[in-house]
């Protein structure tokens, strides 16, 4: 018997936001599991392909993985896919300080969903982006905010209320976020897989 599609992630916030964006549609057809798979160095796409391949091999069936990058324009796209280590070690203040010498605080949040149908199979990518600015932390602890949400102010907010992701309701964040944009691309694909 073939295994159900597995969303492999060790981050419960990712699974929570995915479910919030999609609703209950796939709740009986997608399982969630955590595997510790290596994350290689490379571009966001290279990292995502390698992670999905490793996850499919570990699971022995079809998987989705999700990789998030935060690309600072002044730093030629770094930390990019290495944001987790930078954030864990430097925190919100440290990430702001990295840009202290630069005028341009622009940043691209990128979410890459990768689908791998099984061990040694090719990987398909679904990429969502959101443009923003790195700002001093605002709204920590609100609305289930996590990670670097408090220091990410979407470009679209500059003209409006100037909220960071951490100051927005989940609905408002998902309407424009890197993850919302990626999930909206991947949903029709999952539907076609389940037909
Ligand atoms: O097991 P996986 O799925 O890899 O989960 P992870 O937490 O290791 O996730 P990544 O490798 O993609 O690293 C991305 C980092 O960015 C953070 N992050 C991801 N999505 C975010 C979001 O929407 N808002 C704020 N921070 C986010 C996350 O907490 C990590 O520190
Ligand atoms: Mg990770």
TrEMBL record:
<keyword id="KW-0378">Hydrolase</keyword>
<dbReference type="InterPro" id="IPR029001">
    <property type="entry name" value="ITPase-like_fam"/>
</dbReference>
<dbReference type="GO" id="GO:0036220">
    <property type="term" value="F:ITP diphosphatase activity"/>
</dbReference>
<comment type="function">
    <text>Pyrophosphatase that hydrolyzes the non-canonical purine nucleotides inosine triphosphate (ITP), deoxyinosine triphosphate (dITP) as well as 2'-deoxy-N-6-hydroxylaminopurine triphosphate (dHAPTP) and xanthosine 5'-triphosphate (XTP) to their respective monophosphate derivatives. The enzyme does not distinguish between the deoxy- and ribose forms. Probably excludes non-canonical purines from RNA and DNA precursor pools, thus preventing their incorporation into RNA and DNA and avoiding chromosomal lesions.</text>
</comment>
<feature type="binding site">
    <location>
        <position position="67"/>
    </location>
    <ligand>
        <name>Mg(2+)</name>
    </ligand>
</feature>
<dbReference type="GO" id="GO:0009117">
    <property type="term" value="P:nucleotide metabolic process"/>
</dbReference>
<dbReference type="InterPro" id="IPR027502">
    <property type="entry name" value="ITPase"/>
</dbReference>
<keyword id="KW-0479">Metal-binding</keyword>
<protein>
    <recommendedName>
        <fullName>Inosine triphosphate pyrophosphatase</fullName>
        <ecNumber>3.6.1.66</ecNumber>
    </recommendedName>
</protein>
<dbReference type="GO" id="GO:0000166">
    <property type="term" value="F:nucleotide binding"/>
</dbReference>
<feature type="binding site">
    <location>
        <position position="173"/>
    </location>
    <ligand>
        <name>ITP</name>
    </ligand>
</feature>
<dbReference type="Pfam" id="PF01725">
    <property type="entry name" value="Ham1p_like"/>
</dbReference>
<dbReference type="InterPro" id="IPR002637">
    <property type="entry name" value="RdgB/HAM1"/>
</dbReference>
<keyword id="KW-0460">Magnesium</keyword>
<feature type="binding site">
    <location>
        <position position="39"/>
    </location>
    <ligand>
        <name>Mg(2+)</name>
    </ligand>
</feature>
<feature type="binding site">
    <location>
        <position position="51"/>
    </location>
    <ligand>
        <name>ITP</name>
    </ligand>
</feature>
<feature type="binding site">
    <location>
        <begin position="146"/>
        <end position="149"/>
    </location>
    <ligand>
        <name>ITP</name>
    </ligand>
</feature>
<feature type="binding site">
    <location>
        <begin position="178"/>
        <end position="179"/>
    </location>
    <ligand>
        <name>ITP</name>
    </ligand>
</feature>
<feature type="binding site">
    <location>
        <begin position="9"/>
        <end position="14"/>
    </location>
    <ligand>
        <name>ITP</name>
    </ligand>
</feature>
<dbReference type="GO" id="GO:0046872">
    <property type="term" value="F:metal ion binding"/>
</dbReference>
<comment type="subunit">
    <text>Homodimer.</text>
</comment>
<keyword id="KW-0464">Manganese</keyword>
<dbReference type="GO" id="GO:0036222">
    <property type="term" value="F:XTP diphosphatase activity"/>
</dbReference>
<dbReference type="GO" id="GO:0009204">
    <property type="term" value="P:deoxyribonucleoside triphosphate catabolic process"/>
</dbReference>
<keyword id="KW-0963">Cytoplasm</keyword>
<keyword id="KW-0546">Nucleotide metabolism</keyword>
<comment type="function">
    <text>Pyrophosphatase that hydrolyzes non-canonical purine nucleotides such as inosine triphosphate (ITP), deoxyinosine triphosphate (dITP) or xanthosine 5'-triphosphate (XTP) to their respective monophosphate derivatives. The enzyme does not distinguish between the deoxy- and ribose forms. Probably excludes non-canonical purines from RNA and DNA precursor pools, thus preventing their incorporation into RNA and DNA and avoiding chromosomal lesions.</text>
</comment>
<keyword id="KW-0547">Nucleotide-binding</keyword>
<dbReference type="GO" id="GO:0035870">
    <property type="term" value="F:dITP diphosphatase activity"/>
</dbReference>
<comment type="similarity">
    <text>Belongs to the HAM1 NTPase family.</text>
</comment>
<dbReference type="GO" id="GO:0005737">
    <property type="term" value="C:cytoplasm"/>
</dbReference>
């Amino acid at each position: 018997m073939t295994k159900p599609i597995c969303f492999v992630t060790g981050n419960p916030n990712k699974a929570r936001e995915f479910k919030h964006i999609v609703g209950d549609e796939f709740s009986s057809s997608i399982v969630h599991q955590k595997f510790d798979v290596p994350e290689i160095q490379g571009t966001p796409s290279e990292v995502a392909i390698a992670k999905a391949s490793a996850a499919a091999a570990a699971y022995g069936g079809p998987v989705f993985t999700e990789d998030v990058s935060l690309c600072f324009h002044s730093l030629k796209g770094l930390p990019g896919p290495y944001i987790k280590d930078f954030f864990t070690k430097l925190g919100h203040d440290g990430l702001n300080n990295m840009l202290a010498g630069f005028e341009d605080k622009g940043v691209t949040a990128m979410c890459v969903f990768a689908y791998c149908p099984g061990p040694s199979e090719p990987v398909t990518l679904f990429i969502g982006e959101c443009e923003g600015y790195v700002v001093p932390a605002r709204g920590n602890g609100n609305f289930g905010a996590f990670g670097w949400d408090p220091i990410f102010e979407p470009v679209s907010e500059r003209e409006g209320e100037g909220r960071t992701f951490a100051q927005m309701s989940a609905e408002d964040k998902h309407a424009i976020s890197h993850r919302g944009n990626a999930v909206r691309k991947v949903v029709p694909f999952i539907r076609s897989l389940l037909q």
